[in-house]
Amino acid sequence: MKEKFRRFMAGRYGGDDLNQFLCIASLAFLVVAMISHVRLFYYAGLALLLYSYYRMFSRNISKRTAENYRFYTFKENLASGWRSKRSQWASRKQYRYYTCPQCKQKLRVPRGRGRIQISCPRCGTQFIKKS
Ligand SMILES: [Zn+2]
Predict the structure, then answer these.
(1) Ramachandran region of residue 104, left (φ > 0), alpha (ψ -120 to 50) or beta?
(2) How far is the centre of ligand 1, averaged over its atoms, from the C-alpha of 69 (Å)?
(3) What proportion of the chain, given as a percentage, has pLDDT over 90?
(4) Residues with Cβ < 8 Å from 122, sequence gap 6 or more?
(5) pLDDT tens for residues 49-102?
(6) What is the C-alpha to C-alpha distance for residues 95 and 84, in angstroms, rounded to an integer?
(7) How far apart are the C-alpha atoms of 115 and 130, rounded to whole Å?
(8) Is 15 helix (H, G, I), strand (E, B) or coil?
(9) CA 89 / ligand 1 centre spacing (Å)
(10) CB under 5 Å of ion ligand 1: residues
């Protein structure tokens, strides 16, 4: 039986972190579906589960690996976004945060200096804001 499974899985993708995430997410959806009796959650959970199985048995390994890397990138972006929001919140008494109207660069200016001219270090755009 073990041997048979091993032979079946040969050349197939198997598990990765994205699949682990999909399994946990589908389980969460199914639990919510059981509690709330909302069918949509049930279908969402089932779809995620089927997708994770599809990925596990897939023979297109390079494509699955690329998906997994996109998942890592997405996770890292989410985490760094969260970190920057948290540090902004922690220093909200000392600094004000603005976004450059030209290049969308985030800028930090000290509070309590009145109206000041801010020049973006990235693109050089100057604009006036209250600090
Ligand atoms: Zn700029």
Answers:
(1) left
(2) 30
(3) 95
(4) 100, 103, 105
(5) 999 999 999 999 999 999 999 999 999 999 999 999 999 999 999 999 999 999
(6) 13
(7) 4
(8) coil
(9) 22
(10) 100, 102-103, 105, 120, 122-123, 125
Determine the Cα–Cα distance for residues 129 and 131; give it in Å rounded to an integer: 6
| pTM of the predicted model as reported, rounded to 2 decimal places | 0.73
Residue type, 120: C
Ligand 1 midpoint to CA 48 (Å):
40
What's the residue count for the chain?
131
What pLDDT shows up at residue 93? Answer: 95
CA distance 10 to 4: 10
* Ligand 1: centre distance to CA 107 (Å): 9
| Ligand 1 center to 56 CA (angstroms) | 44
> Residue 70 carries which side chain, given as an amino acid letter?
R
